[in-house]
């Protein structure tokens, strides 16, 4: 659920603004999956949101224990799967990020070497 910086409200409102801000403050505006610091700069702040560890679609509760600060990329990667624990979800997200990083690195290396030959 993205944080709307223009109104400082949480879009889609599965949790209230106050509830969301309490979670972000508790987690010091850092993504609990990848550690992205939502306070470091504006671009980071734009992607911060609050994640339901057990998704709402899977009857995850709106309970602080089930809510974590999360950047949108990690939220997308995590998807709606249900994990045994937060640690398991985190391990999955970090492993998938690493796979994506490698794919991105090899793709950009190809593109750069192509453009260098032109
Ligand atoms: Zn993240």
Verbal overview:
With 118 residues, the protein is an alpha+beta fold. The chain has one domain: Herpes Virus-1 (2-Layer Sandwich), CATH 3.30.40. Helix content is 46%, strand content 12%. It contains four helices and four strands. The strands form two sheets. A two-stranded antiparallel ribbon has the order 1-2. It is globular, with a radius of gyration of 16 Å. 22% of the residues are buried. Zinc ion binds next to α3.
Could you report the average pLDDT, rounded to the nearest whole number? 90
CATH class: Alpha Beta
Using the 3D structure, state the CATH architecture: 2-Layer Sandwich
What is the radius of gyration computed over CA atoms, rounded to a whole number of angstroms? 16 Å
Key features of this structure:
4 helices, Herpes Virus-1, 46% helix, 118 residues, single chain, binds zinc ion
């Amino acid at each position: 659920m993205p944080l709307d910086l223009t109104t400082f409200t949480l879009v889609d409102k599965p949790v209230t603004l106050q509830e969301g801000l309490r979670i972000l403050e508790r987690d010091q505006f850092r993504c609990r999956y990848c550690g992205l610091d939502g306070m470091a700069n504006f671009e980071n702040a734009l992607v911060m949101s609050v994640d339901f560890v057990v998704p709402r679609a899977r009857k995850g509760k709106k309970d602080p224990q089930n809510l974590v600060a999360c950047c949108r990329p990690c939220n997308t990667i995590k998807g709606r799967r249900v994990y045994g624990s937060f640690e398991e979800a985190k391990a999955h997200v970090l492993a998938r990020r690493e796979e994506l990083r490698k794919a991105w690195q090899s793709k950009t290396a190809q593109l750069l070497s192509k453009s260098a030959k032109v």
